[in-house]
Structures are given as C-alpha cells and as structure tokens.
C-alpha cells in the first residue's frame, strides 16, 4: 500500500500534519480546496515554492488516470524528434516507460532531487498532477512557461482509478472509489475544480495553457499531436508532414504498441506512485468502459454533478 504518515520533521511536514485529514484508500489532506494525497503533499508544496521555470519549459499536467502516460509519451516523442526520430528502432520510448522519460514533480521534490532539473537540457518537459491554483506562481504568471492539461470523462476516470489503486489495495471497493469522486474527496479532488482551474486558465491564456481531452485525442490523435507540437513551439514542417512524421509519433505512442514494449510489461516506476508496476499504466485504453462497472443510475449521478459544476464551459 501507499506509505501514509510523513515525517513531521521534514520540510512542510508540519504544515501538512496540521491540515484537515481524511482517511480512505489514500490518506488525503485538504489544502486550499483540494484533497492532496498526504504522501505527495510536502513535495507539491516544495514544488510550488521552489521551482523556477525556464521560459521554454512545458509542464504536462493532468487529473490522475486521464491519459498522463500517453500525453507524456506524445509530448516526448514530438519534442525530441530531431534527436530521436519516432520511427527509429532505438527510440527511448521503446526501451523506457514514459514516466522514466519525464520527471514527476511530486516525487522529485519529495525526494529532494530537484538539482536534477537544473541538469536537464532545454526545452524541459516536466509533469505534475498539481491543481492549477497550486502551481508555482512563476509558472502561471506573466513570464512563466507553457502548460498542457489532459482530462477525461469522470466515469472512465473512476474506473481507471479503481483498477489502478486496486493493484496496491486489492480489497478496494468500487463503490467507495465512486463515492469519493462524488463527494470531492478523491485524491487531488474535487475533480471538477481541478478541471475548472485549467479550463479557465486555457480560456484566459490560450497561448500558455493547452486544454486536452482524452476522448478527443483518441478520436483524432494526429490532429492533436500537431496541435501539441505547435503549442510547444515545435510545429511539424511541410517536409515532416510529407515524410509522415506525425503518423510515426502516433504509431509509436499508440496504446497497443506501448502496452507491448518489454519496458512497459515489466518493471516498476522509480519512486513515483510508490513503485507502481509499469503495466498498471496500460489497462484498456478505450472510452466508455464505465458501462461495465456502474449502473445507469450511478452514471447519471456522476454526470449530473459534473454537468452542474462545469456549467458555463464547453465541457458539458
Ligand atoms: P484505462 O484504465 O481506462 O485503460 P494515466 O496515464 O493518467 O494514469 O491514465 C491511465 C489511462 O490511460 C489508462 O486508462 C490507460 O490504459 C490509458 N492509456 C495509457 N497509455 C495509453 C495510450 N498510449 N493510448 C491510449 N490510452 C492510454
């Protein structure tokens, strides 16, 4: 299982232990409106206070279980395509899990490994589940850097989350996981506020915040890879279009391809998610699997609350 209590002696540990606490499948601490996983909270606070972005950094953000791994793979493949042509037999994504290619800030800062960030060549890609309002101010204000967010139908998110956490806690109940989404105490929840923070930022600053949906990506991956590359400042050239580079990126990062790479079938992540088995990040890779897990009454309850909370956006 996930480790729970953090050492109060550690940086921000005393702040975290003073926060409202909820014990469920992951222990949550309520900080400025979000139920942060207790284990990651000190790392998130350190990230918020100490991270210094470079103008060409790209922060890949997501609600958990909404396509983080895929976004990391696509962004890495697109950004590094000169050094690593996507069709090359020795591409890093053929031998490394995507989480090994892009650092997860909660981990990096919890483990005080942030010096490694200074050593990364520009443009850097980094990753976090931090809500928009809790990102480092230097990221979100004027001279900050770019942010890409991905979210997903909450019904599919909860199914994905349930299967993921069950790898660590086999007795986890689906109903408990589901109810935690409804009452907002799900890790990093409320999910609607997480989505809304990034949604509003993307409307206010479309040049700095790109908002993506897993379902859209699945429907037309190529179009979104183009959008992503352009947003990151690395648009595909006419020559690359002719050579089929976009299609190569899409193919390299496709679910069936990635799931079957040896690096994703074996091994565990280093540090993050408490050394999660790589294969836990590749389950079904489809939309609509919720029909196999919840009644239509449950689905309506979830849809209604998200419809209500996301009213006034194009997300409903
Ligand atoms: P399912 O559990 O519904 O299959 P995250 O990366 O944020 O943890 O999200 C995991 C979800 O993304 C899982 O959903 C997983 O199968 C799916 N996923 C992982 N890699 C993918 C890919 N290359 N293409 C499409 N979906 C992918």
Sum up the structure in keywords.
316 residues; alpha/beta; 4-stranded parallel beta sheet; 3-stranded antiparallel beta sheet; 46% helix; binds adenosine-3'-5'-diphosphate
Account of the 3D structure:
The chain has helices at 13-17, 41-50, 68-79, 92-95, 98-101, 105-110, 115-119, 137-140, 154-166, 174-182, 191-204, 214-219, 221-231, 238-243, 245-252, 255-260, 262-265, 272-275, 296-309, and strands at 21-22, 28-31, 34-37, 58-62, 125-128, 146-151, 209-213. By secondary structure, the protein is of the alpha/beta class. It starts with 12 loop residues before the first helix and ends in a 7-residue tail after the last helix. The strands form 2 sheets. It has a 4-stranded parallel β-sheet, with helices on both faces. A 3-stranded antiparallel β-sheet has the order 1-2-3, with no helix packed on it. The chain is globular. It binds adenosine-3'-5'-diphosphate. The site of adenosine-3'-5'-diphosphate has 21 residues, from α3, α9 and α16. Belongs to the sulfotransferase 1 family. One of its GO terms (molecular function) is sulfotransferase activity. Residues 55-313 form the Sulfotransferase domain. Its EC number is 2.8.2.-.
């Amino acid at each position: 299982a996930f480790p729970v209590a953090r050492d109060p002696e550690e940086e921000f540990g005393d702040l975290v232990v003073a926060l409202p606490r909820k014990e469920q499948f992951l222990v949550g601490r309520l900080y400025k409106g979000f139920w942060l996983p207790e284990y990651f909270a000190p790392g998130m606070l350190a990230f918020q206070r100490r991270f210094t972005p470079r103008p060409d950094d790209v922060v890949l953000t997501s609600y958990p279980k909404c396509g983080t791994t895929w976004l990391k793979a696509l962004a890495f493949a697109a950004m590094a395509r000169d050094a690593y042509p996507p069709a090359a037999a020795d591409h890093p994504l053929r031998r490394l899990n995507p989480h090994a290619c892009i650092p997860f800030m909660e981990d990096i800062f919890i483990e005080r490994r942030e010096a490694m960030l200074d050593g990364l060549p520009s443009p850097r890609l980094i990753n976090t589940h931090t809500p928009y309002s809790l990102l480092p101010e230097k990221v979100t204000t004027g001279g900050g850097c770019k942010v890409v967010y991905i979210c997903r139908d909450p019904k599919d998110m909860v199914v994905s989350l349930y299967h993921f956490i069950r790898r660590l806690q086999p007795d986890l109940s689906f109903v408990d996981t589901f109810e935690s989404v409804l009452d907002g105490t799900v890790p990093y929840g409320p999910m609607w506020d997480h989505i809304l923070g990034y949604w509003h930022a993307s409307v206010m600053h479309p040049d700095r915040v790109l908002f993506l949906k897993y379902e859209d990506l699945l429907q037309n991956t190529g179009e979104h890879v183009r959008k992503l590359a352009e947003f990151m400042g690395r648009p595909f050239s006419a020559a690359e279009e002719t050579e089929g580079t976009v299609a190569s990126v899409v193919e390299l990062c496709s679910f069936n391809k990635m799931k079957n790479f040896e690096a994703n079938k074996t091994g565990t992540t280093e540090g993050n998610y408490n050394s999660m088995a790589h294969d836990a990040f590749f389950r079904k890779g489809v939309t609509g699997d919720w029909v196999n897990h919840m009644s239509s009454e449950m689905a309506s309850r979830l849809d209604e609350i998200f419809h209500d909370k996301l009213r006034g956006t194009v997300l409903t």
